[in-house]
Amino acid sequence: MIVQSKVSRRTAALFAASSLAALLLAAAPAEGASAAAPSPASAAAPSTAQKAPVLNGLALEHAGFQENGATYVPLKDLSSSLDLQLLWNPGKSSLEVTGLYQAVSLKVGQPKVYTAAGKTIMLGAETLVRNGVTYVPDKLFSKAFGLPVAWNGGNRFSVAYTPKYMMTSAGRELFWLNREHGVLYSGPSGSVPIRAGVIRVADLDWASLSARRINPASYAVEIENASGEPHINNTRWRALVSGGSLVRQAKTHYWNPRMLGMKRDIFAFQGNVVMVDGQTVMLVNPDGHIYKTYNLLELTGINDAFAVEAVDTDFMLVRPFQKGTLILIDRRSGQTVELYKQLLSAADQAWLEAYPDTEIDYPGDKLAYTGRSGDLLSFEWTSFTEGQKIHFTYMLSPLS
Fold it and tell me: pTM for this one?
């Protein structure tokens, strides 16, 4: 009986996997398709020349189970593997599951979900919560999203889908970025998102995606990526989405095995988003219009990638990657000052200048801007050899 039971379970698992492959007959719309493209569940069946979908085996944190004739799967665990985002809607006391081509809302204890278009999908069993984990009938994924899921026992599942997107959110606004093509989608949770545009990404490997809200209509999306071996090609993008469309983007790239990377660019100043594209700094309105630009190669004479660490009414602080020294730029006159030459002792300047800036542990000048009071700028410096924290001040020129 034990052998027969094992064989039966194995046969059932194989049957579930083969059934899953057969069920997934609909292809997701291509990246170039319009936002109104049909969902995978409603697309036409492929021709016989098309390849059968590849089954991906998943080992999730939580196990599935069967109850009252229904197969239950952990909603959160599976959603991330299917490019779906979850968000609680406190106003409706419902959980929203949003994908690129379908969005539904569900409530615990109900055997149905409601689509963004107002339709009802019956699941045959109610949504449950066990030990703080939300479980849904496996039919949710096939009926609502055209993505059948097979439970293979325990915490093992099979899906005929490979994740293609990086995902993030800012409040109730959700974002998807196609890792291969750079297509960006956005929209509020519970609604089918729209195509915002294409971010010119490449070679995404160790990558992260984040977003932040600027105002009700505008969001900034940021990507950080390390690629190549041993992942010392560093690229970061900052993109601006306004009114649902991608209106501006910028990219910074630097390459070096140095342990000390570049600080993130300051986000905004006086309502304008700071965007660094190569050696051009742009102050951009939330709707994408450029307020002011600065050519850092012309201003500093340094051909390198830069981080913008501060922007104020009369000055800007930038740091080139290779040399790693903080430079003050007078925004009115265009004059520049290498601050370490003004603040550090002659001995510390000599120590830094004698250190090869190609070494993996080259420290840069270790100056950090901490704020201003009137025309007096404050900096904190960490000693090169003793690790002491020392406070410096720098008085802006009256001409600034």
Answer: 0.84
